[in-house]
Protein 1
Amino acid sequence: MSKISLLVALIVIARISIAQDFVQFDKLTHQTTKYTLQYRLLKPKELKENQQYPLVLFLHGSGERGNDNVKNLKYITDLFLKEKNRNDFPCYVVVPQCPASENWTYPDWYRDPREPTNSVVKLIDSLSNLPHVDKSRIYVAGLSMGGYGTWYLLTRFPDMFAAAIPICGGGDPNQVANFTHVPIWAFHGAKDDRVDPEESRKMIEALEKAGARPKYTEYKKTGHVDSWLKAFQEPTLLSWLFSQRLAK
């Protein structure tokens, strides 16, 4: 086999492997009268009768925007499709896709959400009413642009999520009093040249001054992309996340 043929074969195999992984996330749309939100949904491997499962909302970064309903899965599949995690932490994972020209948030943190974030909130409301979803264990996580989106959703909807994982994002430190009760584990790379790590630091500092006790991990030798790759490899990340519940 020539080198070119071998390379083509390897590319085909890689694409097949990726497609097989993605198939486990249902390809869906959430339709309202004014907007169509594309998203992917991973369900627990086995839905047991009379059992409820947590739901994780994942917000991707700016590089995964579009309308293919595929790129939004780029960084999240390894974490939630790993066999051990699927067995040890059965859950729903919802991954909406932000259109190329849009954002999860905007500079004015005091405004109610616009599209597509408005539809994301409505989608979570809808999914939370599924019989197998545990309403006390709905979580939000996001990276880069999605990290900003995570902080934004905490600001605007402080009682929706049982815990949050914002990665290399930022928010409005003047509004942290809204969500001091929410367990947070934030991550950032100290050498991030795209989102200044000070963006995360100021949120953590404001939360601590407000009496909260957030977790913060800053990787000293890590840049932008590697920050979430490392975060997703934290051995206690999912056990910490799924141990959090909304107060009744």
Protein 2
Amino acid sequence: MTVGSSSVSAIKPGRVEEALADNEKWKKLLTDAGAQNVRVLLMMNSTPMRLVTAWEAADQETLGRVGDAFMANPAALDLMRSTQGADGYIEGYMTDTWIEV
């Protein structure tokens, strides 16, 4: 049964281009951690604009291993700090885990 995670990030006004430029970094870090079908979607119908980062895993055990590997990667933690910190372009986010039924 496929499971996954989706994070919706609100982007600070005027910083969408900066956020889009980091997409490949997020995708590579998640893929390197074992995530499958990693994609980033730009939600254009809201203010502030939002990015949705979604990925999948084969089962809940694999989902946990991906999360552990991602959080153990210093490069992932550095990207999280730079994008979500006081000077970052993300003003807030929400993450959900889902199961395909």
